[in-house]
Amino acid sequence: MENRKDQIIDAALKRFSHFGFHKTTMNEIADDLRITKANLYYYYPDKSTLILDVLIKIGNDVYAGEKEIVESYSGDIMKTMMDVLEYRAAYTRKYYVLHICENLDWIKGLDLNEVMQDFYKREVALIKMLFQRSVDAGELIMDDIEGCAQTLVEVQKGLGIIHTISDVITGIPNESNVDKIVESQKRALKLIFEARIASNK
């Protein structure tokens, strides 16, 4: 059963990333998989449930890659954080149509709060782990590691919203905004952390 669900999620992700959530029908996903609509509805009784699983898959894939980057930290926290930003940006470019759909009214009815909160906590924990390793290595000077991790995650998310709000309002994707997001996030990292790195003292 899990294998069939994975196939459905993969097919839906391809459609959603090209046409967006709203313009994709369950019939089209069933046709892509060469299964009946009844068969599709057996696994996913409504599109909202399928969208949720697609978002969870993307979130899990992004986290797995970011975790690998953080775990490979070797004494250069700025490089590690820049690598995380670039990795995340690659996913944002790939699924930009979905990225700008996150704040649309029609998707707000989904039970996303718990999922998004889990993503947030997981991201904070990952950044906290990176900070702790850097502090332990004598590279980073930081007292409130938990608070700093939360703040960084929130700042980065806020910068992402600033540069995509026009696309969210118009519904017209402009992938060049991803470059603006990454550049702003990199500037924020330098502003926040360069003075905290022991070798810069």
From TrEMBL:
InterPro entries per the UniProt record, alphabetical: Homeodomain-like_sf (IPR009057), HTH-type_TetR-like_transc_reg (IPR050109), HTH_TetR (IPR001647)
DNA-binding region: 25-44
Keywords of this entry: DNA-binding
Domain HTH tetR-type: 2-62
SUPFAM superfamilies noted in UniProt: Homeodomain-like
UniProt xrefs under Pfam families: TetR_N
Domain of life: Bacteria
PANTHER family linked to this entry: HTH-TYPE TRANSCRIPTIONAL REPRESSOR SCO4008, TRANSCRIPTIONAL REPRESSOR
The name this protein goes by in its record: HTH tetR-type domain-containing protein
Species annotation: Sphingobacterium mizutaii NBRC 14946 = DSM 11724
Classification lineage: Bacteria, Pseudomonadati, Bacteroidota, Sphingobacteriia, Sphingobacteriales
